[in-house]
Every structure is written in C-alpha cells, then in structure tokens.
Specification:
By secondary structure, this protein is an all-alpha fold. 71% of the residues lie in helices and 3% in strands. A hairpin with a 2-residue loop joins strand 1 and strand 2.
C-alpha cells in the first residue's frame, strides 16, 4: 500500500521535470522572439537605407531635368549638389562591424573577412591594370 508521503515524493521529481521543461521551452521561445526581432531590425535598417538612396536618386534626377533648361542650369550653378547617402558598393550599404560584438571563437574569422574586404576596397580604387598589379 502506498502512503501519501510516498506518493508526494514520487510527484516531486515529476514537478521538477515539468518545471525544467517549461523553463527550457520559455528560453526557446525567448530566443526565437529575439531572432525575429533582430531580423526585423535588419529589415528596418535596409528599408531606411533604400529610402535614403531613392530620395537621393529622385533629387539627383530632378536636378538633372531642371538643368536641361537655361533657367534651371543657372539655378543649378548657384545651388549645392545633393549629398549621396552612406557609402555603397553595387547598391550594398556597408555597415561598420564592431569587433566587441563578435564572440571570441569567431574573432579570427571576422578579422580575416575584414582584411579581405579591405583588400577588395583597395583593388577597386586602382584605376589601371598596372596599378592593380602593384596593389
């Protein structure tokens, strides 16, 4: 015959296991929510950059069209040119990478990628094949 004390002692480990399962599930849901929020943040940044580039293109084309008339040409001479949005290569906006945000096990790989990116940037600034050989 099982006494009430024995049945409580059998239920206790099950309660602990249920609590652990609930905690693991809560952590899992929290991580998924964090990942989703991070993706949405990246989407917002990309949308903002795209809006800035579109605004710049519209302003630039408006200035070009205005310059096709004599009065517009004079107006363009006495007005300042529009500034380009953040530096970009082939439409991809560069985002600064902070080494402090990178986990220690990935810092060597991140540094190699940054070095490669710097080398590509240098090669893009070289104008002739002779300069590229020297770069």
């Amino acid at each position: 015959m099982i006494t009430s004390a024995e049945s409580k002692s059998q239920e206790l480990p099950e309660d602990y296991l249920d609590a652990q399962r609930a905690a693991v599930e809560a952590v899992h849901v929290g991580r998924e929510a964090l990942e989703q929020t991070d993706r949405q943040g990246e989407q917002l940044l990309n949308t903002s950059r795209l809006a800035d580039q579109t605004k710049y293109a519209l302003e630039k084309s408006s200035r070009l069209l205005r310059g096709m008339t004599w009065s517009g040409l004079v107006q363009n001479v006495f007005s300042r040119d529009f500034k380009s949005p953040a530096s970009s290569i082939d439409g991809i906006v560069e985002k600064p990478i902070l080494m402090e945000e990178i986990p220690p096990f990935a810092k060597a790989a991140a540094q190699a990628i940054l070095n490669y990116q710097a080398n590509l940037t240098i090669l893009q600034t070289c104008e002739s094949y002779e300069q590229r050989d020297m770069c």
